[in-house]
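Regression report. Comparing outputs from two consecutive submissions.

Submission 1:
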Amino acid sequence: MSIRQNRTLVASDLDRTLIYSTAALALTMADEHAPRLLCVEVHEAKPLSYMTETAAGMLVRLAAEAGQFVPSTTRTRKQYRRISLPGPQPQYAICANGGHLLVDGRTDHDWNAEIRRRLADGSAPLDEVRAHLAATADPAWLRKERIAEELFAYLVVDRERLPAGWVKELAAWAEPRGWTVSLQGRKIYAVPLPLSKSAALAEVVRRTGADRVLAAGDSLLDADLLLAADEGWRPGHGELADSGWTAPHVTGLTTAGVAAGEEIILRMRNAL
């Protein structure tokens, strides 16, 4: 008797969903009770991102049990490649918020060309958004301005000095131009609407023939990914939790910080 292959695809955001910087760990217990951490990213010879060792072991098993495990990140390809997740390299990875699809670690240039065609038809040009950011951001709280893969823009800011309401004003300006705005930690992202993780996810589903999708994410840029899934989870922190965002098939966890990453992987394994 043949055994049916698992055709469940698991797609997950990385930062503040599965992996955490030191500032985002949110460890609330005494130091002697803190979980053992595994460093999964090094940048400029310094450890940068972590997950618990328990989460790391479960992620290896999740990737083996699911039909596909697909990291889905707003990071550029260069930033993503700094991450060393436990287990084999995923066959597919979504980078640049869906602007790039990696297949066995290599860029699928046909997919990127398709995305750029969609952007040309469906949103204001990047140069217009970049000019608006330059004209409205205050050097008193702006630390860096970056363009990611010539696809979208983001600012690194001093959150304590960022004026209340500035992000909402930017979002109100961006929305009629076909862009969305997301505040994640110290970063403010401006991303064109056609550039989405769910679009890249749909392409991976088409290629793999997956018939079920599980997903997780914490930010506004993950909402479409969660909506495209059959079942999803969001941690008890981040933009989606702060706004109370949910959907009938999405579970809002109360666990926050690095422990949420562990719980998300456990929930995904139980749902296979």
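Submission 2:
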Amino acid sequence: MTVATSEPAVHALDELQYGLGEGPCLTAVQGLTTIHVPDLREEARWPRYAAAAWAEGIGSVLSVPLPLQGEANAALNLYSSRTNGFSGADIKHAEAYAAQVSKALRLAVRVTQLTEDRKHLTTAMESRTTIDVAVGVIMAQNRCSQESALKILKIASSTRNVKLRDVAAAVVATVSEDPELLTHFDT
């Protein structure tokens, strides 16, 4: 997906690559290598894309990968209306810029992943607390073992097609004036 562009026509060209499954951006991302197309009229690797880009007034393209590590990658795409629109110095500058951007994006992706992991762990801890309390309620009501109580809870979840944590919350609500449970991780 294209995150940002400077021109609407450029956005359409990026989207065209995704639709066709070919183009300099996709090749740069997949191979983690800079792709320079000095003259789109002479480009044979992606004939449909090259023809469409030329028809939109693009003469040359430069796609520089932004390796983000893990499953995600991106690319910086530069378009010129002229053929041979990028010099060797332009390419080196774009690669240096992409290296810096890549570092910032990797950090942003990592922070986002850690934030998501924290949310998932918090939800899991809250669910686990509710389930544990519900197991205790069932143990007290039925004078059974923890294993048997958990089995009762799982059967209720399965037969009602309701998530285990939701069944557990319903059990807790039947014996508590305040069904909100605090984990020992809450502050």
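Expected: both submissions complete independently.
Actual: both completed, but the second showed a warning that disappeared on reload.
Relevant detail on submission 2: The two ends are 39 Å apart (CA to CA).
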